[in-house]
Protein: Secreted protein
Amino acid sequence: MAAALLASTVPAGSAAAAPAVPRIDLTVLVVDDGGGAVGAIAAELKSTGVPYRTVRLGEQGRPVITPAFLSDTVDGRPRAKFQGVVLPSETPGGLSAAEQAALTAYQKTYAVPQVDAYTWSHPGVGLDYTSDGGFSGVLDGVRTDVTAAGKAGPFGYLDGPVVFEDNAPEVAESYGYAGRPREGYTSFLDLPAPGGGRASLVGEYAKDGRRELVVTFAYNQHQRQFRVLARGIVEWLTGGVHLGRSRNYFSVHVDDVFAPDARWDTVRNCTPGDIDCAGGAGEEEVPEIRMTAEDARYAAAWQRSSGFTMDMVYNAGSGEEWKEANGGSDPLTAQLLADRAQYRWINHTYTHPFLGCVQDVGVVPWKCATDARGATRYVSRAEISAQIRDNHTWAAGKGVAVDRTELVTGEHSGLKVLPQQPADNPNLAGALADNGVRWIASDNSRDPAQRNVGAARTVPRHPMNVYYNVGTAAEMTDEYNWIYTSRADGGSGICEDNPATSTCLADPLDPATGYGSYIVPQEARIALSHVVANDPRPHYVHQSNLAEERLLYPVLDKVLADYRALYADNTPIVNPRQSEAGTEFARRAAWDQALAEGRVTAYRIGDTVTVKAPSGVAAPVTAPEGTRKRQLLGSTAFGTAYAGNRSDWTSPDLLQSGVTLTLPAGAARAAARG
Structure:
C-alpha cells in the first residue's frame, strides 16, 4: 500500500532514469601541427584504413574544437564523434584554453583516450625529469625493450627488442627523452636508466579520469622503430576496436625461371647484349647465368627449412630453346618439375620478348619504331596473346599449377615505359582479356600505384637490389661500385648525376667482402621496411640470384631472422600470391573512396559494433578475440586471428543492411580502462 501510494504521488518524470549508453563513432580526431610525429600517426591511420578527421593548427578558418564539435545527440542517444584523439603533445600550442578544456571534458565524459605524439619527460606526463636519473640524447642504434605491461597490452605482437635505426653513423637520426615513471604511469617501452633501473620512452599516463599515451622520442613515418610500434599505438588509441586492418606482407617473385640471364662484364662495366655495351669481349666470352639442378634442389630444401615459399615466374619457351641448344637435355627443368608442388608459379610469357612498342635499338637509348606515317608501331594483340597462351599451355601439360589470372611480362613490357613509351601498348588490354588475365605485374619504381589495364589491374612489385646480371658476390660488388661511386673513385658517376634519388658511397666496397658486409644488410633493411609497413607489394629478383653463389639467400635469411626475432608468433609474415596482393589493393581503393565520399557509418554502443558501407564495398574491421559477427540466425566467429586481435574485410550477409559485431563481454569497458 505504501509503495502504491508513493507511485501515485511522485510524478513519473521525476524518477531517475539510467543514462543511455553513448554511441562512439569509429573515427579518430587528429590535431596536426605539421610535425613529423603527428604526420606519422596520420599516415598509419590512412594506410590501414582507419577513418580520421584532421584539424590543422595555424590554418586559417580551421574548425574550432567546442563541445558541439566533439559530441551531440543522435536518436535521443548521446554521441561521441571520435573514439580517440591525437595531439602533437599534451598541451599543444595553437589550441586555445577553451579548446583544451573542451577536449578534457569530452575525454572524461566518454572515456576517450589521447595520444601525445611527441613530448618530453616531465611530471606533467607522469615521468621524472631526465635529470633525475633518466636519459636524453641521440637514440641511434639504441636497444629498447617492450615491457611486460606492453606485451600484455597494446604491443603484445612484439617479442624481441626494438633497436632504433642507425643508417648513417655521421647523422643523428633519432632523439628522445627517457624518464623514470611516476604514480599513474605504466611503461610500455623502456631502456636502462644511467643511474640504474629503467626509463620509459612510451607509456600510458592515467590521471583525473583521462588516459594519455605518452611518446617521448622523435620519429617520422618511415623509420623502422615507428613502423614497428605504429600498430600498438593505433590499438591503444582505439581500444582494439576500429575500422581498418593491417598485415606484415612478404612475397618474393623469382623471374626468368628456365631462362638464362646475361652476365655483368667487370672489364667493360656493362652487360653484353645491352645496346650500350658495344666493343671489347663478345657475348660468348662472358657466359650467361642459369640455375643448375643442384641449385633447384637447394631452393626446395631452403624453402622447407625457412618456412617460406617463393613464386617461380617462368619462361617455358626459353627453357625449351636452352634445352635444344644443349643436346636435348635439361636437368634444371627436370628437377624444378619434380619439385613443382613446392612452389607457386606465375606466367612470365613463353620466351620473354618485349611486348610494348617495336624497339628501334639502332640508337642509344632505344626508341619506339614508327611506320611511314610516323605512328608508333606496337607488338600485336595476337603476338602478346600467343606468348601468354603458349606459356600457360606448357605448364598445364607438365602438371604445373598456374593461376591464369596472374601475369608478369618480360621487363614489365606492354605497360608504359618512360620516356620512350608514355602509354601502354593499346593491344595489351585485349590480349589480357583473351587469356583471362586480371592481375599484371608492374615495376613499383616506375609505376607504383595500382591502375586499370582494360579489365585487368596492375600489381606493383618492389625490385630488390640483388642484380639480375650477377652470379657471384664479386660481380655484384663490382657493379654496385660502378653505380654508387663517384667518377673520381672509378665509378660511373650515376650517383653524382642523380643526387635526389641516389647517394654515392664514401669509399668503394671491397670486392671480397662488400656484398656480405654492406649490400646484404642494406637490402635486408630495405625489404624489412616494406614488410612492416602494411605493404602487400611483392618483391622481385631473378633466377640468376639462386644460381652459382646463390646471392639471394643471405638477404632472405636476414629478413626472416630479423623479423622473427622482433615479432611474436601471433604475428607471422603473410606471404600472398600476386592475385591476393592485387585484390588487397583493389579493396583498399574502394574503401578509401567510400571514406572520402562520406559513405561509411560505423559506431560502437556498449559491446555492439555497427558498420555500414556502400553496396559492394568490403569494410576492413579489427576487433578483440572473441568477437562474433551476427547473422540472420545466430552468429559466427568474426575474422581471422592476427597480432592478438581478429580482423577481416567484411560485408553484410544476405538480407542485412550492415555488419553487426558483438564484442566479447566487457570489451567496451576494457577499452575505456586501457
Summary: The chain is about 30% helix and 20% strand. The domain at 252-578 is CATH 3.20.20 (TIM Barrel). The longest strand covers residues 198-207. The chain has a mean pLDDT of 94.
